[in-house]
Amino acid sequence: MGEVLNNKFEFLKQKISVLPSDPGVYQYFNKDGKIIYVGKAKNLKKRVSSYFVGKPDNGKTALLIRNIANVEHIVVDSEEDALLLENNLIKKYQPRYNVLLKDDKSFPWIVVKNESYPRVFSTRHVVKDGSLYFGPYTSVGMVRTLLDLFKSSYPLRNCKLNLSQKNIAEGKYKVCLEYHLGNCKGPCIGEYDEDLYLQNISDIKNILRGNIGSVLKYLKDLMLDYAADFKFEEADQIKQKIKQLNNFQSKSTVVSSSINNVDVYSIIDDESSAYVNFLKVVNGAIIQAHTIELKKKLNESLPELLSLAITEIRSRLHSTSREIIVPIKPDTHFDSVKFITPQKGDKKKLLDLSERNVKYYRLEKLKQQSIRKKETREDRILNTMKKDLRLTEIPDHIECFDNSNIQGDFAVAACVVFKNAKPSKKDYRHFNIKTVVGPDDFASMEEIIERRYSRLIAENEALPKLVIIDGGKGQLGAAMKIFRRLKIDDKIAVIGIAKRLEEIFFPGDPVPLYLDKNSESLKVIQHARNEAHRFGITFHRNQRSKNFVASELDEIKGIGEKTKQNLLTEFKSVSQIKKLKVEDIVGVIGKAKGSLVWNYFNSKK
User: Fold this and answer.
1) Domain 262-371 class?
2) CB 570 within 8 A of CB 594
3) pLDDT per position as a tens digit, 303-325
4) What is the pTM of this model?
5) Candidates 3.30.420.40, 3.10.580.10, 3.30.70.890, 3.40.1440.10; correct CATH number of 2-96?
């Protein structure tokens, strides 16, 4: 094993020695050729080398390093390009040790179609056909509000007809129900002036870009022109549009008219996740808001997590803002982007608002999880064990083995069973060691493992999810020898626990795992180990006592098993029998046998 590890690290050392000092992305592969981690770096050689220098700062990183079998890299032009590439590779391969982006749904867009008399509608699919797409929006409610506003203020068509001038002139189409309801002014029959229609589309585009102020100014000027020409009906229609736009604008959070095209990010974290809130501010109003959760894997820092979140959100929501307000500086440089951490003023108020939003999001998330599943104590413990012991299944069925002997005499073993992290005493089993002569713990372990699981397989009984062997690497190796012979080594997780330092050993791994002494996982393992030891010792003592009693009575010729059982049931012990008068013994087992027993013990006095 040591030689294999040395060869592996020598191979990795050679790979790292030829890495460039350029920005890029590195990928770690395991022995099966699967990507287990993707990282970005300003300097590839320096960053990758740092993993193999000194002691890892946490157990997860140490585990990652032990599983690295190969390193590949991709050089890019800038640090920002590296971050984008890292983000895309993480989403594509979902490596085991990378931060997990929890929110990856498809967001809605509002599209203005590239066609005669353009339609305006929502979609989740962007098609490169020359149409204009606005968004994506993080709120479906916001999309509906905007479309309702457009429908009431600007009567547009919603049919899919090809409204070319030729088709309209030839009278190919008839009006539909929308025309009769007053929702459409009939461009299909030439009743809707195309210039007016396109002006309405221009207003909609401005609203979607956040330029409501310019639309309001245009409409107010138009309303005054109509009024000056005594066109009061048209002026009143424009007035209603202005009223609707003002109502829509009042629903947006206005922060300051001097703040334009700014992104705001805030971040908080806990032991397992980080939460990042995003606000988009255009012309002093918040027009977009979104929060994502990132699942930690390797104790990533807040600047690192913030960089990943900014990259993800800017990519997903197509943000191009050049000014970003943040609580801390991210650990990555973004080209043509200025990061600001305000201490006071309107921008500080924006940051405070974002931080309130992300705190509310986390609180709501925790409440939803609590409502969705009220996790029992057993569920929590089992999930913790699965995580701590790197298991693929919840260990709801555990079996633990212990050998007990005194200088090889009366060798016995015990198997205790835990169901849902609690002892299941009706399933306990003990074994007399039959094939091993002398104090050979390894051979004894092989015997009981083979007897136990050969029987379970033959009787088609359920196998445990986890087997605990009381002992170190030697005992664990003896057990694994049998599991492999029975061809169930890939169906059962097996660990060994060495009592001196409470080391947890895994098959084939020379490096033990040390769980925190207050860990619930360790407490269950210790409970199972101690229970197996107690059950084994009790059985061992009973066997020794039984053997001693039997040897005393077996010396008396003419006394069988049933007679011995009757005597011990009545008088409890051999020492008590020795003190009895002959008539007492005769009264229980008869005159002939009673005389034999009394004469045997009293002839020795």
Assistant:
1) alpha beta
2) no
3) 989 998 998 888 877 788 889 99
4) 0.41
5) 3.40.1440.10
